[in-house]
Design brief:
Aminopeptidase, single chain, globular, YpeA/RimI_acetyltransf, alpha+beta, acyltransferase, 13-stranded mixed sheet, 2 domains, 319 residues, Acyl_CoA_acyltransferase
Length: 319
């Protein structure tokens, strides 16, 4: 198997073609990078602003990574063909081998492989020290006419406000605390500053048009504390996406998650949407139970390969 070549050596048109193919795969599974994402990514790869490697003829493939905080976030996309699995493995290895020295772990998402090929890839990669597999589940629910008639109720002493009425700092702090000590905690970053950057991208419609009217925060009556929030985007004219649902750990199991989900159903129905989808980590049993209880069903899965650099004492960093 030939080694992948640096993306800086590729023709820009080839990189544009590959990033277009990647975007199509992301759209097919409900993720919608918007704006000039394809052209910007191809340009960043071509100039070396984003570190990447690729294969051309015989089954094109692309891998790239970038740093956020002390984590590296990567992606590998392969086109269909007899070499797809081997090339995906080599690209994952290239990303791992070229991790920035200050990165303590890398998460690599995958597109282009069938579920069977993803499992075969994990069979190859999973035995390596520091390797861990994270499975993400896509879930969907039809929005029925009766959803408009159900008015969810908040616990006493709380009220709702538009999510943009809450400061980004407060939302990022809530988001960070809501997912701390879970597998999700390092998918987006390790501190509130990382979550703020993610929220800014969501509000800037980088993953589908931000639906301000279908996004909400739960605060106390005094307006001095935020306890939960829902961020929603438009996937298509008839389908919305719950991008981020966060609940203060000290307020979990108090009905706030159910309130947000059902508030979203009622609002989306009034806005004319026929369905809503979301992604949840398979190991997040409480969240999956909430979504199943409110009528969501699983429609797809996606794998994220995590490799953690050993600590000085020889043990991998925990994910």
């Amino acid at each position: 198997m030939d080694e992948p070549r640096p993306a800086t050596s590729a023709r820009r048109d080839d990189l544009v073609e590959l990033t277009h193919a990647l975007r199509r795969e992301l759209r097919n599974r409900g993720e919608s990078p918007t704006g000039n994402w394809v052209e910007d990514l191809a340009e960043d790869l071509h100039t070396g602003r984003i570190q990447g490697w690729y294969y051309g003829e015989g089954g094109a493939a692309l891998g790239f990574q970038s740093m956020r905080s002390h984590l590296s976030f990567g992606h590998v996309h392969t086109e269909t063909g007899p070499l797809a699995l081997d090339r995906a493995e080599r690209l994952v290895d290239a990303l791992r081998e070229h991790m920035p020295p200050n990165a303590r772990a890398i998460d690599v998402g995958l597109t282009g492989l069938s579920p069977e090929e993803e499992r075969a890839l994990w069979d190859r990669l999973g035995g390596r020290p520091g390797a861990h597999l994270i499975v993400r589940c896509a879930m969907e629910r039809e929005i029925a006419p009766e959803d408009a008639a159900i008015e969810p109720r908040l616990p006493a002493g709380l009220r709702t406000v538009p999510v943009r009425d809450v400061s980004l700092e407060a939302l990022a702090d809530l988001d960070c605390r809501a997912f701390r000590h879970t597998e999700d905690s390092e998918l987006f970053g390790t501190d509130p500053a990382d979550y703020r950057r993610v929220l800014e991208e969501l509000f800037d419609s980088r993953l589908g048009r931000f639906l301000e009217e279908a996004s909400v925060a739960v605060i106390n009556q005094e307006g001095t504390a935020v306890y939960a929030a829902l961020v929603t985007s438009e996937q298509s004219p008839r389908q919305a996406t719950y991008l981020d649902l966060m609940v203060d750990p000290e307020r979990q199991r108090a009905g706030l998650g159910t309130f947000l989900v059902r508030w979203g159903f009622r609002t989306l129905r009034a806005l004319g949407y026929g369905s809503v989808r979301l992604w949840v980590t398979a190991s997040n049993a409480p969240a999956r139970a909430l979504y199943e209880r409110t009528g969501f069903r699983q429609t797809a899965t996606a794998s994220i390969y995590r490799w953690s650099r050993p600590d000085p004492d020889g043990q991998p960093h925990s994910g």
